[in-house]
Amino acid sequence: MKRAYAVAYRLLGHREDAEDLVQDAFIQALDRIDTFEAGRPFAPWFFRILTNRGLNARQSRALRTMSELPEDVAGALVSPERAAERADLAERLRDAVAKLPERQQLIVQLFEIDGWTSAEIAATLGIADGTVRWHVHEARRALRAELEPYRDEASRGK
Question: How many domains is the chain built from?
Answer without folding.
Answer: 2
